[in-house]
User: Fold these one by one.
Assistant:
Number 1:
Amino acid sequence: MSCHTAGAGTGATATAERPAGTPFVALVGNPNVGKSTLFNALTGAHQRVGNWPGKTVSVAQGDWRTPAGRPLRLADLPGSYSLLPDSPDEALVRDVLTAPAGERPDAVVFALDAANPARNLYLLSQILDTDLPVVVALTMTDVAARRGAPPGADALARELGLPVVPVEGRSGTGLDLLADAVCDALAAVPPHPGRTSAWAAGSPVAAELAELAAAASGLTPHPARWLAVSLLCGEEPPAVPAELAERAGAAAERLAGAGSGAEAQPDPDPDPDLDTDAELLVAEARYAWAHAVIERAAPRPAGARPTLTDRVDRLLLSRGFGIPFFLAVMWAVFQATTVLAKPLQDGLGDFVSGPVSGGADRLLEAVHAPGWLTGLLVDGLISGVGQLLTFVPLMIIMFLLLALLEDSGYFARAAFVADRLMRTLRLPGRAFLPLVVGFGCNVPALAGTRILNRRQHRLLVGLLIPYMSCTARLAVYVMIAGVFFGSNSGTVVFFLYVASVLLVVGMGLILRPLLFRDMKDEPLVLELPPYRLPTLRVTGAQVWQKLAAFLRTAGGIIVATAAAVWLLMAIPAAAGHGGFGKVDVEQSVFGTVTRATAPLVAPAGFGDWHATAALGTGLIAKEGVISTLAQTYSAEEDGDPKLTASLHATFEESSGGHQGAAALAFLVFILAYTPCFATLAAQRAEIGTRLTAIGFGIQLAAAWLLAVGVFQIARLVW
């Protein structure tokens, strides 16, 4: 099937979620080889992210239009090191590529890092066993050129027996040629004959593998050669006939004996640790093939000089400089966010509270709308939308700065530096990555725990992620810190983020021995991408995707929360306090409930119903804290002088004259208690109901204890 002709695809529509007749192409590769950059360049804005059907792993899919106008459905599968999976992400890649005929991709684009080709070829040798058409996209060619002689595309193509296309996702170089190569691969029948036996040639595995693959052919819907290799390596694929499994076991025993030399040199007391099993022989054959391919395609020149990345890493990955540099970078990010976003937030707030609210008010008055409807639309819905708009500059700046750090290659170094810190919790360094994602939003961070191989690691990190300060909390930090700490607000926000990290470590040290006593260490395995100058196209795409996801998730919550709070404030708690929509806030259902809970936080210095009301809606979404404060004080938005003056007066009274200490305690409570209902839902999906309930209780208790402690200590010196 060619991209230049209209034809029906051979893969299943449901699995790839593609229109009928659209070929399904899988983009596969090791982590940090430029795969996502290539995906963004090929699909542009025509992409979406969601869980793969029947799986809990998120996969980005998009529409790829070839130069000839033929549409392809492209799926960016998670970065993987092997089709013998150690994590849910790798299991998904294996399941997609080895699905029964009719449900598999029509072709595979394999992203191969030209700077580290031998390591990538191990995975490619496994993909070739699936008998899928494969096109190699050669990435990172500029980095390889700086390190010495890069492997040439023609030489690699000759050695691999596959089309190899150099590409540059940032600039768009080679994308049209890649599309043509994929179209040709889709049209080829059979795809690349004879290539799958290359890695096994000359190995003791070759004969056993050929015989077992021939026996497996036609017995199962899965690729016969992949099935044979999996059985030899001790895997248990589904629906394997008993006779085939027995033959595989016998073949594995013969290979183990041949590898250890047991038949040639009998040993009455062999050391089992010295035995070579079939899986090891297969791995050795794959690596030997990979190194032979690279040696012939790109002999490495003698005396190659260290690259700029190597020289910079000596400093940024050092023991004494790595962590201080990371803290300095994050302080600069949060300081820039608070300084740059504030005037933009104020401008948008003034626009909503002025022209928009005033115009809506006049319009509703002109049509003689009842007072309750005016209150719902203006004070509820428009107030909620206005609050959402004030978040947009904050989110754009934060996402932009974090995207620049990620696209430059620095975030992977941060995980490496954090490995020692993670070791105190018996977690691998890669656990730092979903925790860092938690700075943006806890929900995708919880999904990110799937990169961890061990279940106990995933459970512990899933309990710790809610303590990471997400961008929704950041909006509250900026507002409260701006009101009470003025020009020092950036430093206060930075302190809260440092406290967030310390809280993660502290809670980890408490939870690990209580819930995960037998948790084992795991060595750090992490690809360090080269340092690169971020590009406008890639960075802009990342910022837009994250902002759009935030608006989709938070928008409905904020508007619904604002409307619900207005409704509760419109209902009188008892007769004689006015009718619907005509009751003082303090005498409403909302005010009565929150007033009853205020004494619980009095030891923390903010035992006032306005504060507890905001904390209550903060359980639904942290973005609702600010809008609730504005509503309970009948202020227009968070920049209103009335709101600022009211907050000062309230905290001054509730704290007994220590409003600064009370404000800091309030911020610490916001930091530590449950992020939002969406996070609870994601947490339940990842770690289960029982641990989610335990985590919820611990978060509330920790928030109360920390807030009380901060206030009682701070008021002594404030």
Number 2:
Amino acid sequence: MKAKLAIVTLLGLTACNLVLAQNEPAAAAAPPTPTVIAAPPAAEPAPPPPSALASGAVIPLIQFQDVPLTTAIENLARQAGINYILDPKVGYGQPDEKGQMRTQPNISIRWENLTAEQALTALITTYGLQIVDDPKSKIARVTIKDPAAAEPLETRVIQLKYTSPTNIIGAVQTSLTDKRSKVMADIRTSQLVVSATEKEQDAVSKLVEQLDTITKQVLIEAKLVETSQNPQTIKGINWAGTLEAQKVSYGNNNQNKPVSDEESTLQPNASLWPKMIMQGGSFNPATAFLNADGLSATLSFLNQSADSKVIATPRAVTLDNEPADLSVTRAQPIFKTTAGTQGSPGGSEVTYTNLGVILNVTPRISANNYVNLHVIPEVSRVSGIARKVVAGTINEADIYDIRKVETRVMIPSGNTLVMGGLVSDGTTTGNVKVPVLGDIPWIGLLFRQDSKKREQSNLIIFITPTIVEDTDFHVSKSDYLKTSPDLVQPDKAWSAWDEGTPKDWSNKGSNNPDSPVFQ
């Protein structure tokens, strides 16, 4: 309907020009008039005023045949709803600097599917003219365009739909060739403010349209299985308590002999050691003593076994080329102790480290529905405690077992990647025997102890990346935001048996319906 109205409007303007030409004197030559093809049927309603097309309606056909330039400008400006004035510098019909009359060119054009504003801009640009807007008076000025003048800058605001302004601003900046042009990002509203020439603005719009697309997502499903076996066996008799550190002393001795700090640390009951007392026959008082520890042996005949299995199944959805961290960990405290000095008391500081299963995956969607994965699995735990004496002080610290691997693979979407090889297997054997006696057949078993320990662990990782399609999303209906808080059902009141506050008996027996008894 808008196209038909536009055609009718152009026909009306053409008819007016024809009438004015017929009323002029015969001696004067009738000026050529614009012609519009594709006339509407006679049954169409009366055309609206030209201002109705100022909204940018597309006109199917615009044609001028041997029409003065100013006449074409007037008709197109009226169609576009632009108030304008012709700059005297244009000077058609007036002498120029050399005294010669400036003749106005006649134009013949035929354009299809353009707005009146687009046609007007193309027309005046072709003939070295330009439109300068006046924001105060709202009247544009058609004047001569300076060939040496730089192309004016336009400022446009581009609303981004999917991407972040920080991700696209670099690409937009490289497409601007004019040194005056610039682009700024508004992070809050995800918009780009571009100040550039008209040609650059068109190039920026096409570039943003190509880059501002929906980012695909990838579902990361992982399963980490860790198994460990720690069997241990100890068999035999250990005579280390008797034969490893016997202490023999000779000299004056008694049951209440004080011991040194080192002896008291190693053996709290050193002052009560059992004694073998040898007294010289003629010495009086007794002065010769031979002291030794008592008889001590450890019998072991035991097998131990410890098996464990840890399974973690984290799952997450991440954007294409964005990292996803999947972790099942426990925060392990680390104590940092500072010794005190003169005038400064000591103290301790606690920091934490995460131990457990940590999986870092960065997917990148490739062609043919393949997914390029950057995988970093890590499994860590506390394996023991290390002790070290520093400046006479025993310090303890945890020992961590960390298994980590980093790799890049490419697999089809929906397929499973199996990662293994993180195997730890260690065997420890130990033998303790009494020399000579431990080598005697059969009897030597009473003077020998054998031990064996094995620590084995295996980690297997399964990773399945799946490209998320639009059909995988489902709308979940919820009326939570539409529900008034008054409609929320309150919790059931507690009985007098469970309630902590005493019951109010002040209105007991009252006939008042508003009393709590009736409520």
